[in-house]
Amino acid sequence: MTSPLPPVTAPTPQHALVLFAHGSRDPLWCQPIQAVADAIHAEIGAQAWVRCAYLELTAPHLNDVVAELSQLGVTQLRVLPMFLGMGRHAREDLPALVTQLMGQYPHIHFELLPSVGENPEVLKALAQAALQNLSF
User: Fold this and answer.
1) Residue 101 belongs to what domain range?
2) Residue 4 falls within a domain, yes or no?
3) How many domains in the chain?
4) 104 vs 12, 39, 44, 66, 107, CA distance in Å?
5) What does each of the 136 residues of the chain score in pLDDT, given as a tens digit?
């Protein structure tokens, strides 16, 4: 008699994308960021973890998200700043935070991506959205 095979489980993704935004006291403020995360998840499924993280005023903080992803076995983590402009948070605060996290999680390869506002396709989409509202 043969023994039953163990249940098949999907491999845990080792890659993650974190959408990083400023945060706000208004709980509705983060809905567009979460909508982007949901759309990415719908597109890629279980190929990678997709999380949102915030600098301040909104949970979860980037430190908490990285701790969770580390426990899930992530070894490759990309951080996408959801900023339109290259202000102090994108230029100074976030790189310093990522550098600190690199020291805390040496088993994770971090990649800090350019802010979404530096992507020509994002700027084009914003122009198209504005043009849809243009009627004189």
Assistant:
1) 15-132
2) no
3) 1
4) 22, 30, 28, 10, 9
5) 455 655 545 557 899 999 999 999 998 999 999 999 999 999 998 899 999 999 999 999 999 999 999 999 999 999 999 999 878 888 889 999 999 999 999 999 999 999 999 999 999 999 999 999 887 6
Cα 79 to Cα 116: distance, rounded to the nearest angstrom: 11
Measure Cα distances from 61 to 1, 4, 5, 52, 53 in Å: 53, 44, 41, 9, 5
Residue 121 domain-assigned? yes
Residue 7 in domain: no
Write down the pTM of the prediction: 0.87
For residues 76 and 14, the answer to whether their CB atoms sit within 8 Å is yes
The token duo for 66 is 């990285």
